[in-house]
């Protein structure tokens, strides 16, 4: 028996990082998985990898830009023939290279970041709820990816990104209250910095930039995407039936640290 047997799951941002690892783990736990991303080329490579790792599982792909509502609507509708959505992992997000502090962050960077990271999550929540109702679901789970920067301040400023993730936390908490009596659970995932392209491309070979962040981890290392995926499977499954409106922090102790080991 898989922990997600019979569940139809959408994963956005599934072409790499947390999204890809989660799609694979969902399928390994018995779910039918729709992998979605804006990047068609990477999505097809990710789909092939997932299918190879979990032969026989129902895994498909659907290209969508989460910041464009009709594309999200079509993505969710693609699961109508499967019996409707049970789980959506609204995980797609960006951290812009030119993000900065209140002065250096440009309006274009601000707007693009909010459009993808906040509006994209809102559209995913909205169309998932419409689908849950349409298919008369009595239980369903929405997981939205925020970040530890929604909880702790970062002196390496990325103000547009931080504000967007704070919005994800607040929105998720409120939707959790609104839909609790319908059986639709909403929770946020708060990852710490990870070994995924989103951060690693940003850090590149800059050892000083890297050390500035690693020093805050009691473990002395960044997290791995699979460590986030394990939490997402729990939130997607019925094992978390009484976990509602929470901020699930998967950070290797980073937000609990004062002085870390030398
Ligand atoms: P990633 O860059 O590996 O994956 C993000 C995916 O989102 C990419 O495949 C990208 O193509 C996709 N995407 C970007 N814009 C999109 C759009 N408009 N529509 C659909 N897809 C889009 O990064 P990741 O680390 O796996 O990040 C996943 C989530 O985790 C993001 O929301 C990110 O903000 C969050 N997060 C990451 C870290 C980290 O250190 N990597 C830490 C905290 C939170």
TrEMBL record:
GO MF entry, a single one: oxidoreductase activity
Q: Which UniProt keywords apply?
A: NADP, Oxidoreductase
Which InterPro entries does its entry note?
Answer: NAD(P)-bd_dom_sf, Sc_DH/Rdtase_CS, SDR_fam
Presence of the UniProt keyword Ubl conjugation in the record: no
| One Pfam family named in its UniProt record | adh_short_C2
Q: Which family does it belong to?
A: Belongs to the short-chain dehydrogenases/reductases (SDR) family.
The protein in question is named NAD(P)-binding protein
Q: Which organism is it from?
A: Morchella conica CCBAS932
Taxonomy of the source species: Eukaryota, Fungi, Dikarya, Ascomycota, Pezizomycotina
């Amino acid at each position: 028996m898989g922990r997600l047997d019979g569940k139809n799951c959408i994963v956005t941002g599934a072409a790499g990082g947390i999204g890809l690892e989660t799609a694979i783990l969902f399928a390994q736990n018995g779910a039918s998985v729709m992998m979605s991303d804006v990047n068609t080329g990477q999505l097809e490579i990710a789909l092939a990898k997932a299918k190879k790792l979990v032969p026989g599982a129902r895994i498909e792909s659907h290209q969508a830009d989460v910041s464009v509502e009709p594309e999200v609507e079509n993505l969710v509708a693609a699961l109508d023939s499967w019996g409707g959505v049970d789980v959506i992992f609204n995980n797609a997000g960006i951290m812009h290279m030119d993000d900065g502090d209140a002065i250096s962050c440009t309006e274009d960077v601000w707007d693009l970041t909010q459009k993808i990271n906040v509006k994209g999550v809102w559209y995913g929540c909205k169309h998932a709820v419409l689908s849950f109702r349409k298919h008369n679901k009595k239980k369903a789970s929405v997981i939205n990816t925020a970040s530890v920067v929604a909880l702790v301040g970062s002196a390496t400023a990325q103000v547009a990104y931080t504000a967007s993730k704070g919005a994800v936390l607040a929105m998720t908490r409120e939707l959790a209250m609104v839909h609790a009596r319908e059986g639709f659970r909403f929770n946020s995932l708060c990852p710490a910095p990870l070994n995924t392209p989103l951060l690693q491309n940003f850090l590149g070979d800059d050892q000083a930039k890297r050390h500035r962040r690693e020093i805050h981890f009691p473990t002395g290392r960044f997290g791995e995407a699979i460590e986030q995926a394990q939490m997402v499977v729990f939130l997607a499954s019925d094992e978390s039936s009484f976990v509602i409106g929470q901020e699930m922090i998967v950070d290797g102790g980073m937000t609990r640290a004062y002085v870390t080991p030398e």
